[in-house]
Amino acid sequence: xxxxxxxxNSRIINEKWFMETPQGKALAGSHCPKCxxxxxxxxxxxxxxxxxxxxxEVALSRRGKLYTYTVAEAGPPGxxxxxxxxxxxxxxxxxVFSPIGGDTxxxxxxxxxxxxxxxxxxxxxxxxxxxxxxxx
Length: 136
Ligand SMILES: [Zn+2]
What we know:
It is a single chain. By secondary structure, this protein is mainly β. It has strands at 10-12, 18-21, 24-31, 38-39, 56-59, 63-72, 83-89, 95-100, 112-123, 126-135. Helices cover 0% and strands 49% of the residues. It is globular, with a radius of gyration of 16 Å. The structure holds zinc ion (ZN). Zinc ion binds at residues 32, 34-35, 37, 46, 48-49, 51.
């Protein structure tokens, strides 16, 4: 499993998507203090109630349920096939688009999934690391 920090041979896909917690990296969402809606990736303005300038950064849950997924048998350069992508519904009410790792033959709609950090693709010899949800 790759480390959770960028190194000489790897880089984090987008540092803005993450925040550090005592349990390690978590997805960084934004919470609207006015209407309570939570977003990922973060937003500066709430598109539900138009609250601006007061969005709070929150660490999102690592576990959620698989809403839907697809398994690709062909991919762009740098992707190992087959690979899976899908949507994960988190308890905060956020639906996150995510690469899916682990045993993709075990995927089931509604299954419990957990976030980890993993390899997304190879980019000119550099491992691109990002969030990946896997079946629990
Ligand atoms: Zn709002």
